[in-house]
Design brief:
Strand order of the largest sheet: 1-20-19-15-14-9-8
Number of helices: 19
Shape: globular
GO molecular function, one term: glutathione hydrolase activity
Largest sheet: 7 strands, antiparallel
Strand content: 15-25%
Organism: Evansella vedderi
Protein name: Gamma-glutamyltranspeptidase/glutathione hydrolase
Structural class: alpha+beta
Radius of gyration: 22 Å
Pfam family, one: G_glu_transpept
Distance between the termini: 19 Å
EC number: 2.3.2.2, 3.4.19.13
Length: about 525
Amino acid sequence: MISFDSSHYPYSSQRMVTYGRNGMVATSQPLASQAGLDILKKGGNAIDAAIATAACLTVVEPTSNGIGSDAFALVWVKGELHGLNASGPAPQSISIEKLKEQGIEEMPKFGWTPVTVPGAPAAWAELSKRFGKLPLSEVLAPAVKYAREGFPLSPVLAYFWERATAGYSKVLKGEEFQGWFDTFAPGGKAPKAGEMWRSEGHATTLEAIGETNAESFYRGELAEKIAEFSKRHGGYLTKEDLAAFQPEWVDPISVNYKDYDVWEIPPNGQGLIALMALNTLKNDEFKSRDDVVTFHKQIEAMKLAFADGEKYITEEKEMSTAVADLLSDKYGQQRRELISNEALTPTPGEPPKGGTVYLATADGEGNMVSFIQSNYMGFGSGIVVPGTGISMQNRGHNFSLDPNHENALKPGKRTYHTIIPGFLTKDNEAVGPFGVMGGFMQPQGHMQVIMNTIDFGLNPQAALDAPRWQWMKDKEVQLEHSVPNHIALGLAARGHNIQVAHHPGGFGRGQIIWRDPKTGVLAGGTEARTDGAIAVY
């Protein structure tokens, strides 16, 4: 178990760390956390709880994810960590040439063009099949109930829902987008905090996924509806694309950071960026968290990692540079030597050759899950298949239309992906799952909460509550308003272009569960920047 330094108590002023023994579910939505806990109490394990929670989040937080999402998971079972990549590929019929013939010079954000094969339903089915204890239909029942009977919106959810509705009303023009407005803005407006929202189509779809172990979504009636709607509006996604999809079990990647192993999913995800940044700083000693030198080195290491990530990360089999080379000690030291006392403009190196929901679950048997799923950019593409509640993601927006770019669009290729689950171990024993959702903030959040934990001894809640920074581009850095003023001034003196943000929405939303290997006691933290909640018993 990680030792927590009680002298850091002030950072826990918003919430206290939560302890439990028999089971814990940490999410951004109280109803979803409770749904996962209910499944644990019915005899399910941490994997069942994660699936139940993920499905419920498509209902109670549709501003960030949906049935048409992609997903990734890190699963600790019987002393072994397993990785699942359930991100879908581009349709087989799409190509750079076809898009450019239509006058498209960069991948659009909305409509059918950026839609890739959704992976989340297949992730739920695959996790259930390999590690679950309860039938998938029973695990999805809480989500079905909330979709059919409705639920009252929580405050932060209502804020993002209203903001998305206002934005989509301006940009989503065309018949293909009517399903989104019918589903999420009935009567032409977003529901408000405390108001009830329900979706019978969503409930029926979740029932079909549960009863068929997701077969209906990829090779049945739901697949037919998705493909027909795509064809009707000039989309590239076909019935054959859906039928061919299978999630992939992968070997997680890691770096050793000060005697702890930090784990991520390998590319196409951007977890590699977090690992590269930590690898760059693993030999540095940090005297204090609230010190300008600490912030400066973190920011500089993250800039360098992002520069490499932008150049090299795509589907792993398409990468020209091996992950092992990017995470080598030699390359980490090379990048560390570039960090001086002044802010730099990052450029990629040459290594030696050789809008998302995150949840964490744990049960009394020692099983633990780090799970993340997302539509991307809030509600995603703006496409909802009529009568189904299926909101399609727009992950294809990250593809480049430059044929020479590492992440160039190709038929059947998976794009650079922002969503990343994390996991921490020590001496081959699980410490636990962690994650910070939020687009390109995610690896930055991973780095900060891991360093808060390992370097500064913060408990899970304090590690999440601590003020954050976000590197934006070049020398531009955003700081939360709660970052001490002397740090903002000190960073500016080192050449950083500092902006202070007064809204927490851009700094990610995370969850952490750590487990004591001797007692089995679970310590959890959830995000005060959203409607976060921990359910425990």
